[in-house]
What does this fold into?
Amino acid sequence: MIRKFLFNCLLVLTGIIVLLGGIFSLYAHNTDEVDADPALVLTNKGAVRGVIRNGVREFKGIPYARPPVGDLRWAMPQPAEAWSGVLDVSQYKSICPQVERYGIPESSENEDCLYINVTAPYKEASDLSRKRPVIVWLHGGAFVGGSSTLYPLDYMSKSGDVVMVSMNYRIGVFGFMAHPSLEADHNGGYGLEDQRAALRWVKANIAAFGGDPDNVTIAGESAGGAGVCMHILAPDETSGLFHKAIIESAGCATPLPSVEDANKIGLQVAQQVGCTDEATALSCLRNKPVKDLLNGAVKVSGSNILTYMPIIGTKTNPLPGAEAFPAGKFVKVPVMYGGTRDELRLYVAYAMQAGQSITADNYAELLKQTYGDKTDAIVKQYPASNYSSVASALGTVWSDFRPDVGINHCIYLESAKLMRKFVPVYQFVFADRTAPPVTTNPGFEMGAVHSSELIYQFPHYDNTRMLAGPNLSPTSQKLSEQMVAYFTSFARTGKPSAQDAPVWGIFDREDRVMNFEPGKLGYFNSGVSHHCEFWKTQYPSILTQ
It folds into this structure.
């Protein structure tokens, strides 16, 4: 009996040795291949092959999570499954479900969209052994649109010698809709949870692409910038996943919807698609075609551009910024923060393109729709006669402060003032009013509108939308180079710097805000320029600093 037992143990041990030998042999084989082919990388789920071009290695469409379909629709993202062989990642994968909006042509009904992209500098084999800073870019799109495919990563990667990462995440009805039947901890926050799953993928895999997992900067614009805010505000969920943050055109201290209010929107969507039975609502919603849900969401939102957005009061988003920042309940990392000089003139343009008339006769009435009984004081502070047109006056008011939209300068300053008590903050405004237009000009001076800085960071950004093409004037091109130098040096060291450019110090008063304007690069007083003292008198419960 003892001899038989020992013999069986020997067989088992031999099998284990053979199995381990096969695994080690396979790993060695893949490692040899990686060493021989810089376009081949071994991730923790399998090997991927990208392309080498123009001084970078590009890897597009690596799965970072399982497709969120069936029972994974409105559920926490699950790690991607492993694959055998070598996965071709030379092309972008599908964007997440969305409808066309504001004349922007992107649309999709494909839920299999949770993919990540990596671009790393490459000139010679020695580049593979270096560990570069990492910038993870979160795309914008008002939480209902956009995709990573719009942002070519090569310019910032090469210019700043950094590894650039972007990803798609669930948006709109699939990523930011709340409903009473969804898991309470993450209700309405699956788009943000996708971003966090991507950050965990970066932590586990970016070293294989030449990135430093201990030097990761998260960055984003508009809804992507709001995503950065939400990750900063969830320390129990995100601490250790990033080490610096860049926020463009998003207010971290903006009031956000409660779970109760957001659930009402979800119930309306459910009613639109015929899922009103409380007991079966989730199952019903998960079985509805993507197109039906997209159409139902559009009917509920109507003309409200921010119907689907992060909500407060869950594990995903525990506290609003106005409460968390003063208490120090956030991820304490260096922050670069700002927006564009004429942010919401873009949305005035959208309104006019949709047929809205904006004249001296209805100026006050249009303001009243947003500001109510404060309108008379606002008209006195911002007389339309002071501006080149009534439309530009309205856009300036909105850009300086709107209580219902986090895209405004006084809320940027408010957020920065709250954070700077705990972390270094570097504040800026993008003010190049000669920037290429981002939409058809409806007939007024739009200036440096929302998203107009993106082409300075991502040349060839969304060529279908940038009507003037990717070419900047010589002075704007110089500004682009300075901006990228500031941004990537911040990612490297936590302090922005650029050759032959002004020293950029910590934001400690309102006249130490960096003005990104050709020929005028340097500090200016953002609080005075955007009349924030006036707005504090109108909204003291929001603007407290």
